[in-house]
Amino acid sequence: MPDNPHALPGQAFALPGQRLIALEGRDAAAFAQAQFMNDVKGLADGHWQWSGWLTPKGRAVALFALLRLSEQRIWLVVPDADADALVEALKRFVFRSKVAIGAREDQVIEGRFGAPERAAGAVIDGDGDDSVEIDLSGDGGARTLRIVATGRAAAADADLAERWAEADLRHGLPRLPASQAGQWTPQQLSLDRLRGYSVKKGCYPGQEIVARTHFLGKAKRGLALYRCEGPVETGAKLMAGEETLGEIVARAGEWALAVAGLDREPTPAQAGATLLQPQPLSAGLER
Q1: Do 229 and 252 form a contact (C-beta atoms < 8 A)?
Q2: Buried b vs exposed e over 221-236: b needs ≥16 C-beta within 10 Å?
């Protein structure tokens, strides 16, 4: 079933809270390779991937779509983290690298429920000099994300923006609020489903923890999707009677993602007084 059967296929709408960070300069790709958890060196120009920035202990500070427009131009579409704070944190690691890092106030992020005009899969349409389009389609239906100049921004629509976030969660893309930043490893967030991190690319913050967990097979928790029959707070404990199953890490509309144990079959659960019904994660958002 499509993620948004009521949205007009050609209707673009603003995605509030999503920001664009640009890394530009001779060492942009090299800096991104050294800092972020996916393999930027192996990513071709004009392609994008899921990625993120981790603490030294391997916990996700921010998750984002990383666009390699060229070796000297890397863009990050950041949906949840404080972009200005992320920029300042990244700048502390520039040292002698020839790269400028900044949040682009002249560009905005918008979405559309419908197939891209030219982008497909991991292939980007646009080089950053005008609008840029990427394909966020999955098994739940076609979606397009566009980066456009501020003066050309689409109008806000709270209902469509919430449906967009719901689609992210249903495909296993965690939309982590600030309270959940720095708490979870890529494996606990099941980011292998999105091909969102690398265990072979070499050093980056948190790489040792990520690689050790991978190669020793010690991932005991991962994402579970639930449909909520009432209000649920992020950070609430996921319970089955007196047993704690996990914790709610993301919520949008009537959908929630929890980090829960991988050693049991999904069962109905509760978060506070609200009943949650387990649902299968949709595929197709990996890049």
Answers
A1: no
A2: bbbbbbebeeebebeb
In the chain, what are the domain boundaries? 12-170, 178-279
Tokens of residue 43, six digits: 């990513």
Q: Is the pLDDT of residue 6 over 60?
A: no
Residues 102-146: pLDDT tens digits? 999 999 999 999 999 999 999 999 999 889 999 999 999 999 999
Rounded Cα gap, residues 278 and 264, in angstroms: 12
User: What is the average pLDDT score of the chain?
Assistant: 95
Order across the sheet with 60-70: list the strands. Answer: 47-54, 60-70, 73-78, 19-24, 100-103
As a whole number of angstroms, the distance between CA 272 and CA 235 comes to 11
- CATH code linked to domain 178-279: 2.40.30.160
Report the 10 Å Cβ neighbour count for 215. 9
